[in-house]
Write a sequence for this structure.
């Protein structure tokens, strides 16, 4: 009898790898499921909020800010594995066994971050959840000594080059330290946190001692035991009885008893709902209120990607404070199915500052969100940073290839867009096709893997390429985030396989760039199709290696002429104005906007 393991060499593979399809969810299927998840979350969250209000002293109308943050990853993790197991049963019946490792229990997590970390990185945890859910079909387990690797290769980079907005010298360092000092002694009125790469430009131009105050999220989380009595009242099976979930079961052709499935989801959520958001809810809210009451501003700039941030947002909403978010990378506005962005960012906001676009996905939950178009501080400053890097015709390599990455396990908030394990074969094929097309056409190549984890997951692919091409290409050994002056100086142009943040940076900074985009992991929104078609016509975006090679050869003949082509620069300017707007005087537009609010 076959044994189902997460990523074993024999038997049934639960997740795909570079040589085995495993139980994959296709891109189109994932887009459908992602939309269904959006519908499923809301009634469940509303039911949980209702029960919490009934059995505690919490009365806030904004309770769902916290409950959504804590609940969605748990529901997502359960349903993702549930869907995959249903596929296994459809293909094999129940005539298989599920591996049981030396772990039969995981405690209730203190935080959502802890739960997400386990789902996204922990082999034993994933194996445990698969075993747990497989019992719905009556599948038996077998103890194994599976040769799993308990610790994944680190996906963390050593240096984040994206945060640099000025050259390293004494004057710039002194200027930064003065700005930092002034921000501490003369604080603005608008509390701000979670602005990512925008913080350095905002600090540089004095926003933090004229308009903003860096809000601190440093209160202690505290300790608490699990309150089983409260959990049994809050998480009841009827919470999960909703038409949206029934429709999902129908679409997946689930033949199990619906009540049994809902009962299993209920137990799963009840057990893994984080302590910080239930037993420690009042304590965290007390701290958040203490922080918020220090400010009289009617607005707060926030990105609540962690629990404390969500508590701050809830406390602010309780006081009638409007929440402002801001764009912090690529994909926003033009890439389809940004699942986490919709649920974890847009849902909490009243105003969102974009890099030039104003059209949101067509979800009812986003109807009241106002989008304000402003130049990107980060892209504008990065453009200035790269200005001093003159184009060199005699580069060592023709192309610096920087493909996207892949994760070992499904993330806890992910639509079709992103580094899903399901697309690992597509990533492998994309890299192989690119190598073949470039090297066989005498285009010299410098390859920069996304991170160490991706290299490990694609170890067979990379080994085959090494054996096939040997010294016909070079590989970047140190995998830092973004690119450096040294990398830019060594390569004629940068090649991507997705039009993400790096692609936007290249376009705005005047760094030669192209993208081989076959849409295997991302695709554009309908309203962005026209501008990408125009980018394809001018040789910046390519859907085949044939046109890519042809355009690179044209570029090599006269890089300067290629970059200055009026038709090409016009289309790039149009694209950047819509999705990567820059301005040397961006700070004036930002000040005007925030002064209009105060």
């Amino acid at each position: 009898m076959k044994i189902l393991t997460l990523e074993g060499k024999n038997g049934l593979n639960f997740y795909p790898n570079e040589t085995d399809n495993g139980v994959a969810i296709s891109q189109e299927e994932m887009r459908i499921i992602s939309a269904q998840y959006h519908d499923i979350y809301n009634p469940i969250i509303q039911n949980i909020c209702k029960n919490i209000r009934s059995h505690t002293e919490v009365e806030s109308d904004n309770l769902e800010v916290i409950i959504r943050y804590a609940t969605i990853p748990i529901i997502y993790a359960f349903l993702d594995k549930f869907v995959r197991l249903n596929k296994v049963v459809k293909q094999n019946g129940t005539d298989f066994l599920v591996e049981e490792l030396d772990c039969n229990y995981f405690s209730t997590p203190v935080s959502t971050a802890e739960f997400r970390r386990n789902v996204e990185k922990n082999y034993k945890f994933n194996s445990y959840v698969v075993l747990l859910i497989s019992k719905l079909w009556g599948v038996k387990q077998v103890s194994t000594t599976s040769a799993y690797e308990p610790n994944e290769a680190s996906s963390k980079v050593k240096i984040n080059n994206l945060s640099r907005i000025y050259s390293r010298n004494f004057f710039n360092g002194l200027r930064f330290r003065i700005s930092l000092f002034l921000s501490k002694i003369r604080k603005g009125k608008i509390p701000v946190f979670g602005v990512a790469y925008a913080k350095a430009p905002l600090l540089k131009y004095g926003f933090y001692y004229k308009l903003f105050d860096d809000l601190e999220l440093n209160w202690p989380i505290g300790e608490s035991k699990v309150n089983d009595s409260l959990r049994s009242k809050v998480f009841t099976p009827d919470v999960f009885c909703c038409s949206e979930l029934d429709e999902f079961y129908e679409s997946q052709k689930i033949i199990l008893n619906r009540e049994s499935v809902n009962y299993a989801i209920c137990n799963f959520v009840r057990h893994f709902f984080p302590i910080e958001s239930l037993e420690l809810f009042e304590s965290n809210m007390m701290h958040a209120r203490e922080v918020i009451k220090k400010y009289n501003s009617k607005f707060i700039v926030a990105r609540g990607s962690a629990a404390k941030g969500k508590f701050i947002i809830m406390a602010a909403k309780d006081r009638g404070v409007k929440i402002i978010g801001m764009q912090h990378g690529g994909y926003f506005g033009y890439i389809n199915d940004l699942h986490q962005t919709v649920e974890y960012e847009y849902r909490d906001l009243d105003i969102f500052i974009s890099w030039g676009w104003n059209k949101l996905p067509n979800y009812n939950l986003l109807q009241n969100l106002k989008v304000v178009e402003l130049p990107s501080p980060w892209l504008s400053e990065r453009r200035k940073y790269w200005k001093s890097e003159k184009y060199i015709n005699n580069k060592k390599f023709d192309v610096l290839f920087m493909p996207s990455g892949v994760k070992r396990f499904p993330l806890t908030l992910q639509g079709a867009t992103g580094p899903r394990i399901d697309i690992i074969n597509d990533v492998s094929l994309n890299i192989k096709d690119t190598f073949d097309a470039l090297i066989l056409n005498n285009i010299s190549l410098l390859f920069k893997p996304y991170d160490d984890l991706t290299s490990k997951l694609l170890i067979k692919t990379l080994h085959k390429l090494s054996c096939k091409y040997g010294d016909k290409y070079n590989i970047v050994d140190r995998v830092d985030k973004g690119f450096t002056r040294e990398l830019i100086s060594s390569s004629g142009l940068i090649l991507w396989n997705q039009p993400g943040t790096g692609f936007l940076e290249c376009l705005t900074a005047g760094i030669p760039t192209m993208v081989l985009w076959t849409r295997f992991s991302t695709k554009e929104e309908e309203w962005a199709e026209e501008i990408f078609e125009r980018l394809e016509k001018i040789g910046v975006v390519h859907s085949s290696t044939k046109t890519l090679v042809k355009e690179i050869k044209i570029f090599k003949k006269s890089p300067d002429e290629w970059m200055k082509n009026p038709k090409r620069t016009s289309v790039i300017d149009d694209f950047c104005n819509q999705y990567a707007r820059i301005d040397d005087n961006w700070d004036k537009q930002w000040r005007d906007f925030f002064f209009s609010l105060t």
